[in-house]
Amino acid sequence: MASRSLTEMSKFLSYVLRHAPGSIGVVLDSNGWAEIDQLLERCRAHGKPISRETLETIVATSAKQRYAISEDGRRVRANQGHSIEVDLGYMPVDPPEVLFHGTVTSSVDAIRAGGLQKMNRHHVHLSADIETARHVGMRRGKPVVLRIAAGRMHRDGHVFFRSDNGVWLTESVPQDYIEW
Ligand code: HQG
Questions:
Q1: CB 77 within 8 A of CB 29
Q2: In a domain, 127, yes or no
Q3: Taking the CB of the first residue and of the last residue of the chain, which one, N or C, has fewer CB atoms within 10 A?
């Protein structure tokens, strides 16, 4: 019973922190953080009371590490999975002149027509080297590696990020920057 209600509360927190903070009047900052005091007060006001202790238990026991509490203990956020626009903290970085994208033959026509789109993710994923891109493509079938004129994109105003594990990220790659 206790764990079921923890799961229910966790799902409610996911809904609020990833998708609909406004549904209970919570404001997230641009990095996705909610003030814990405000969050818990708003949960209570909407008939879904969660104590500070229970929140800490949910954060600590979530199998997928869905949430994080800030170092000062005052804020909480979902680590990923947002449908609302949040910046999880990657800083814009100057890309190298050329990056690579691994895809598959079956996607080539659509990419020629519409450029690279982020599909279900927050960004298009690019690699610094051909071999990594080839492996990304191979996950789906016969790999095709595209050369991306990342330096030119950047000079034209496109923003790039690099994740902690070295993946290059950008919003989209118009076909003009893909060197076939
Ligand atoms: C393709 C793994 C049609 C795109 C890997 C790709 C990576 C289009 C697929 C990370 C298209 C999306 C990301 C368009 C792009 N029309 N197809 N206009 N634009 N595509 O999985 O890059 O395990 O979302 O080429 O290591 O394959 O998740 O992206 O084939 O870093 O941590 O649509 O996933 O990391 O597929 O892989 P994905 P991805 P994780």
A1: no
A2: yes
A3: N
